[in-house]
Amino acid sequence: MLSSESAFRDFKAYYPHARNRVSVVRFATQPPAAFPNTAPSEVIASYGLPESYFYLPNQFYRHKNHQLVVDALTILKERGTNVVVCASGSTEDRREPGYYDLVNSVVQKRGLEAHFRHLGVIPLPHVYALLRASTALLNPSRFEGWSTTVEEAKSFGVPMILSDIDVHREQTSGAARYFGVDDPVALADHLMQASRDAHGLVVRDVVAHQDDRVGAFAANFAATMRQAAGEPVQR
Question: pLDDT at position 95, please?
Answer without folding.
Answer: 92
